[in-house]
Every structure is written in C-alpha cells, then in structure tokens.
Amino acid sequence: MGDQHNRRVMLGKQGEAYTADFYRERGAEIIGRNISYPIGEIDIIAREPDGTCVFIEVKTRSTLDFGGAESVTPAKRRRIRAAAARWLGERSGPAKAGVNIRFDVMLLVSNQQGGFHIDLIEGI
C-alpha cells in the first residue's frame, strides 16, 4: 500500500508541475502553489496577462476509472472558494483591489508515452 500511495503522490506532483507549465506557456505567472487552510486548499494560483487571478484545482489520474472532473464536487468547490477568499483576504493592493477571479479544473490522465491527456474546464 505504501508504494501505491507514493505513486499517487508522485503522479499528483507531476500533474501539478505539468499544469503550472501549461499556464506559464499561456503567459500566466504562477503566484501560489499548494496553499492550504483548515477550510480548504488550492493547488495552483496563477495570474493571467490580463490580471485575472485563476485558482486551479488539479486532478491527475492514471486512468479514468476513478472519475475526473466530477470528482470536484459542490462541497469541494465550496472549500476551494473559501480558501481563495481567505487567500485574497490576506492580500492588499493590486493583488486584491478589483481583481477578476476565475476557478478552473485541470484534469490530467497519464498516457503510455509518459505525458498526459488534458481536459481544462475554465470557470467552474
């Protein structure tokens, strides 16, 4: 069981790194990773070129057998939004004032070539 857990953790970290690179390639700046509060957590926070602050939930799977985007339940969405509100509340100035925000889900399924099939859902 320990090896399986370690593989899942490693796959998750690879998925988060891939997602951060994906957003960087689109011109975004990664401004936060693995932000955790008792009320919820945020995998990645990015600032897009237009200033939009994007809170990204990353779901990395080895197969689709265990669900994908539907695993981001309404309760999980509430926790992400609560964590985002807390994170924003701790900021001042341009990081907070009048900022546009968006919540995305990046679903990654590993493929046999060592990469990922991606499904990006913007604005959940």
Automatic annotation (TrEMBL):
GO molecular function: nucleic acid binding
InterPro entries per the UniProt record, alphabetical: Restrct_endonuc-II-like (IPR011335), tRNA_endonuc-like_dom_sf (IPR011856), UPF0102_YraN-like (IPR003509)
UniProt superkingdom: Bacteria
NCBIfam families hit by this protein: PRK12497.3-3
PANTHER family recorded: UPF0102 PROTEIN YRAN (PTHR34039)
Family statement: Belongs to the UPF0102 family.
The protein's name: UPF0102 protein COCCU_08905
Species assigned in the record: Corynebacterium occultum
Taxonomic lineage of the native organism: Bacteria, Bacillati, Actinomycetota, Actinomycetes, Mycobacteriales
